[in-house]
Amino acid sequence: MTTSKIDLLEWAMAPDGVPSESMHRLAQQLLGHDVSGVEVIRRGSNLVLKDTAETTVFRVQHVCRSREVEENLQLVASLDSAGAPVVAARNERAAKDGSVVVTAWPKGLPAGTTDQRALGATLNALHDITPPAALPTVDVRARFEERLTGLDADVPVDIVTALSKHADLAVTALEESLASGSVLLHGDAHIGNLVWLRDSARFIDLDDLCTGPREFDLAPSLVSYHRFHRDDRLWSDFRAGYGDDPDWELAERLTVVREATMNTWLATLWAYDSAAQTELLHRIDTWDTDWKDHDPWRPI
Question: CA nearest 85: which of 234, 173, 200, 219?
Fold first, then answer.
């Protein structure tokens, strides 16, 4: 097994669910004290864990990403110092061994589905921050290529075809939007990446910070409204929270980027998550259908 293909969950947790010795060791390096236990929050290309004391979140990534992880720690720290509504890491260094790189972050209180006004306002505040000159322009092509080429062989051909088609549409839509202006983007701005910490709403999961049209960050909330919750009050709250008058037609065109991002990620779970399989089949069947004419998508 190569380092880049190591199973992150197997690295972090013993078969009985107890954290591995390696996980304990790197967590101690980051925090300076023992961690009694950890629980899985999310499994995907990254592994996200929390300590059982509910104070720290650990992000476990393949060691081949060490350089970008360390650069991201410095970037987030600088944005935090500049007043950006982000959660900075507990320290500006990562812990790593020959297989993984681990970072530690304060655990905030997750925002609820009704916190849409806070999401909009926090997103507006982020967009007002002057982006560092070194930040790249938003680009999703490489992510789609990596996910699609790495899919399990058992993923049906018709699903792969639909994912590839919409990924191409997403790349085209995004490239056409770049002339509309550029701001600091979160890159994955949805309610699940908003937490309450130190009495304010802040963004987490900051791997995708970049620059580009602000409508790119607004599209996830539009997708959530159309495809998932369909609650007019929540959508009105988000728009009121954001405040400014963005180009909602552009945001609509960019929804395919968000949808392709979600659905290619869902496809990566095919081999070990039957619920993800069922939901992906539903999304593929309804993807090109008007959202008012199909049953809502379900979050996974």
Answer: 200
